[in-house]
Amino acid sequence: MVSRITRTTALVALVGLIAAGCVPPGPPDNSPLIRIFAPGHATQAPTNGVIPLRIDLDEVLNPASIKVSVRGTDHVQRIGRRRRLTLTGNTYTATLGPADLVAGPLTLEVTAKFRTRPHRPRALSRTSFSWEPEIDAETAGRCDVTDQASCLLPFPNDHFTVDDPGTDTARRVSFDLASMPANSSGVHIDPTEWNRNDGFSPGTPILAFVPGLDSAASGIAPITDIGRSLDPDQAVVLVDAVTGERQPFFAELDAQADPEPGPVLIIRPARNLTEGHRFIVALRNLRDGETNTIAPSRGFRLYRDGIETYAPAVEARRAHMEDIFATLAAAGVERESLYLAWDFTVSSTRSLSERMLHIRDDAFASIGDAAPAFTVDSVQDDVDDRIYRRVTGTFTVPNYLTGAGEPGSRFNNGPDGLPARNGDQTASFICNIPRAASADGELPVDPARAGVYGHGLLGSNSEVNAGNVRSMSNEHNFMFCATKWTGFADEDIGTAVSAAQDFSNFPELADRTQQGFLHFLFLGRLLRTPDGFVADSAFQASDGTALFDPSDVFYDGNSQGAILGGAVTAVSTEWTRAVLGVPGMNYSTLLQRSVDFDAYLAIIIPAYPDELDRVVAGAITQMLWDRAEANGYAAHMTGDPYPATPAHTVLLHPAFGDHQVANITAEIEARTIGASLRAPGLAPGRGTAVEPFWDIPTIPSFPFGGSAIVMWDSGTPAPPDANLPPRSPDYGDDPHGDPRSTPEARVQKSEFLRSGGAVIEVCGVGPCLTSAHP
């Protein structure tokens, strides 16, 4: 054993070396005679607050004189030697618990007297650590500590992205598998396909959970008063961090929420957000039902109030959060007013559209200026009093899916991550030649206009045979040809069910639907090239005269044919004018408001029994829906066309009070594509909005050459002002099919779907009423 004189000499030397900078110092005021091994210096205590304590005393110190305390702001907890500490040799051990701690930075302080010189000042050592009982430091890297209701809240969120200089936004989504919602079998959504995105949806629902929130008491802009979202004192602020401009929105508490934990706040952009831009969300001065201010979560206060921790994942965000606070301050949002703030990046144009544009360009390069190969299988004359001839057959389309492209297949990605051609597919077509083109196939022929028709939800191209489509065809001399929405047709119902049971299967729908877009484009090519349909006798009169005019092609689609039709129109090189009947976009908004979703919700609820998980999963899936519906393409549907793509002009025909496709989604689409409103959109008092059709400009005069939205009213009650579907009988009969069944609407469509066409007035001075209006 080393003598006390030798040990004292060594300690004096050690102190000298520390002072000389030769040995790294410990925490401030630490005596080398007291060594605190646990808790470690600059560490984060576990969430449960159970901490092992170990202190080694040098032999020159009197163990019986030890004093141990835990100190924090307005907190001192003494650890009794006799009742709490165990001495083994020169080592004291104990276990600290939650009762010894308070949230925030803490100091463990240990003092002891010298054995031989008890009047000498006590030796002192300290170690600093922190404890946050509401924060799981272990998951803070993959979850957001500022909203503890769900790992991925608030959403969307750049906390779930990483730097990636290879993307257009310099970011890449990086969901952790363990953070994704899990179904009732415990299977988490596989994030692999999502993690290819360089941002979030331009129409994303923005989610946060605020316990006890009263949205009315807080003054949050509702669906009925979108204009209020831009008020200077608005409780929810959505800021474009690139331009500094406020963005319009409406917000709602989830009306489908479970009683516990209660509804999530859903903020929905009133027009799609700019692709590639970063946005900041701020919630401030929020109030409960008794108008009391709701206190922020401890996780958010760590950043807002500058409370430091020793959790690396928490501290790694601090500088970024300070940047958010600075940007908000510049926008007039005071830091101390904040309940919550975060940011997210919207996907770039390339990330949203590159797969579809790639397969389009690759497929058309393979045929040049020619038509795809096709086969006529059946020619039926004298179909009925409206249709003279029905032609059915198939055509060949390059296949970019795995296998034969059957339901459930995925993109066959090449080394560059883009879909690679994998042989060919065969697509079916049905074409109806109206009697208006030729009463009996003889001269004189009045060649019909060529139209591509898009069918409805999980249906078939046989919808082109529906009565209202045949009426449109014969009344206005249109030959409508239809193919299936491969990926979202009747044959894909099984895939939709599989995705409802496990959202990991959702990429199958998104990929195959893009293949279906290509089928529509190839059908358009068959209608407009000299070696296409026009060259086949099935499309000619008895003397060889063409029964349709291939000089121009138009698009007309209803319901899903409008939702997907908006996307395929945006990428179409084959037509430039489209009518989208009973339209909308953004399935994450639309489905909760559609009676069509009831059947799938009956599958989803047992698979994902927690409504909060379902809302989060719905927001996540929109990131892939964007590749396969209008929401991801809307910014380029009319203006700002994609490369090698013409500009398009679009007419929207919503049905007021639609039970299947929510009107609000058509209005958001109209704002996003720059459509103008045929006014009056509704009779006074028909809607519930403070300012109906907010920020949609009205058509100044007719004929109007731009894109437009014309609301058709059947007298159906106004839809709910919540994320609920309007169901019969409380909300009357579903007007979903009424616009296309109304002769005046068909006249308007016909005049729009012409070369150089325009929107004409067909409703007089009042609102546009359907034939079903009482």
Q: What's the arrangement of secondary structure elements?
A:
Layout: H1 4-19, E1 34-38, E2 43-44, E3 51-57, E4 67-72, E5 75-79, H2 81-84, E6 86-88, E7 91-96, E8 104-112, E9 123-131, E10 161-163, E11 171-173, E12 206-208, H3 215-218, E13 236-240, E14 249-253, E15 265-269, E16 278-284, H4 298-304, H5 312-315, H6 318-330, E17 338-345, H7 349-367, E18 374-381, E19 387-398, E20 424-434, E21 448-454, H8 467-475, E22 478-482, H9 493-501, H10 506-528, E23 548-558, H11 560-570, E24 577-581, H12 587-590, H13 598-607, H14 611-625, E25 649-653, H15 663-673, E26 676-677, E27 708-709, E28 712-713, H16 743-752, E29 768-769
Parallel strand pairs: 2-9, 21-22, 21-23, 23-24, 24-25, 25-27, 26-27, 28-29
Antiparallel strand pairs: 1-3, 3-7, 4-5, 4-8, 6-7, 8-9, 10-11, 12-15, 13-16, 14-15, 16-17, 18-19, 19-20, 20-22
Catalogue the unreliable spans. 1-26
> Based on helices, strands and strand pairing, what is the structural class?
alpha/beta
- Helix coverage percent: 10-25%
Biggest sheet: strands, sense, closure?
Answer: 10 strands, mixed
So how many helices?
16
Describe the protein.
A ten-stranded mixed sheet has the order 18-19-20-22-21-23-24-25-27-26, sandwiched between helices. The protein has a five-stranded mixed sheet with strand order 2-9-8-4-5. It has a four-stranded antiparallel sheet with strand order 1-3-7-6. It contains 16 helices and 29 strands. The chain is α/β, with parallel strands linked by helices and 774 residues long. It starts with a helix and ends in a 5-residue tail after the last strand.
